[in-house]
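Translate sequence into structure tokens.
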Amino acid sequence: MKKKQKDPNKRPWRQRLADWIVSPGGKWRQKIKAEQKVQLREIILNPVAWFRGVDLPEGHITPWELFLYGLSAALSNITSGFAGRQDFLFKEYYKIAPNKISVGSIISSLWDAANDPILGSWMDRKRWGPREWRRFMRISAITGHTLNVIKMLDGGMSDWQHIALLVFCNCLQDVIGTLSTVSDQKLRAGISPYSQQRGRIQVWISVGNSLGYPFSTVPMLLMGLRDVFHLNDYQIIVMGAVFMLPFNIIASYLVTFVRQRVNFRAGAPTNSLPADPAHDPQPAEPLSEEDLQPIEEEIRHRDAVKKERLAKLERKERLKAMSRKERKAFKAQERKDHRERLARGEVEINPVTGEPKLTLLESFAITRFNKYFIVNTIAGFITVFTPSVDPLLIYRYLVPRFTLFGKEISGEMMWLAHAQVAGFPVTFTKPFSRQLVNLVGGPLKTNKLCHLVNAVTYVMRFLVGYNKFWKLFFNMIAEAWTYVINDMNSVAETMLNYEMLDYVELKTGLRTEGVTMSVSALLSKIVTNNIGTVTGNAFLEWTGYEGGYLDSGGAVPERFRKYMWPMYTLSAVFDQTVYLLLRSLVKYTPEDRERVEEELKRRRAAAEQGAEAQPVAVSSAEQP
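Result follows.
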């Protein structure tokens, strides 16, 4: 058979497809914008270069980095179904009294309160960069997830021994976790100077969460089929957490490979990890002025450090020569001079760390420009005592069993169905969350809309109830709607946090991720994991709950049946209303954001050239 000859003039299929995309076509191709057609053509012609972000505009995040965030979120969500059931395991399998668990939560809360803000503000004042931030995140990836598994192990311990182990692991996790959380936020802040680009990170995290979510429900599936597989709660949760531990570690590692594009300080490295001089080839030609600049900067830095140390030694000798009364007056005058310089906007830079010389209280005082952070903090303290209620307990003990095709469906299986149905619509909206936020009118308007919708929805769920199939189906549909708006809000909150941090930098010249994120993490831990758990445990104790009713065959207390659903729904209404009212006090428009970003970009460029930027008003409504 004669072999068919190839046409030498025929273009490759990829070239033909790329030309077809950009050519005038039918009604569907006509709806594609010109810039989108160009981007599609580049993707088809060279998908690898597109994935790596070759020729992307300055400050734009590459698809590769977004993929890392998405994959990290997917792996984290897959493993969360096991590692996130610690409290449920303590109550249902170990049958530890809820108020005993509260003792451990209170001690952990006190440690959080003392540790997080101090550690976060300390990190703000350190001259650390991407290398140190990555190091903290990688250490936390191993130790934090391992401690999560350790505190769930049995080992034949008594109730109080379990509580002691829980407290020890929580305190250790808190120190490492705070370093990791602040480092992660600093890396995200530096990945792009634009809020919209940083918002894309949250979109991909949401997409990853959606992809991993079906796997996170595996524990509920196994609990619903416990009679089939003959597994108890301990075997399902703890053994599953041990099996998933490597995936948890990998998930936290992935996001440490992102690139840094924002130079917050003149002379600081702007790109990922610093180069290794031992492996850099020596230049054959004399160094240019551009090459000499970092060397001269390092020489100036060393001279400044030497001068600072000599000044400290001189001050120490002077203080030794003074009387106690003279020393006290001298230090008081130093503090007064420092406050006056700070009031004039003259912030002294520590040449050793490269950061401003600020006290702990002064670091916190800078956050007064961040109104969004202030109202969130107030709302967090107002809602701090709202009880945390595990909905799985409601579905395990209160939801009636239904018969479908001759098979009895347990409460856990109904909770699994609820989770799948409620999470289905948001799967299709996640990729467009950032666009939907902009369509609503910006992140702040989305934020307020989210809390309003959640409050109304929880009121409706309380009134409808849960004791019939159609009522459960209504709850599924209602929660599906809130999942969509909550996903939009997760992107909006990410954008707002960084917009406010940019605004603080504009007003003060300082970045405050450490203070801001550590206090936010502190409130989250206190409300969700500690004080919220304490009040939730006290509520469970009040209802007469003891746990383990499926294994023991005992009757669920009547008070538990009567009050669990109202507490679950109406407490959420209270929280959402508080946040809605307080966040309505914040005024910040997308136009303000654009002005801040452009001015910061100009200032950073000026700082690189040794120029001094002058303060510029952003919005008359936002003047301090």
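Note: The longest helix spans residues 469-508.
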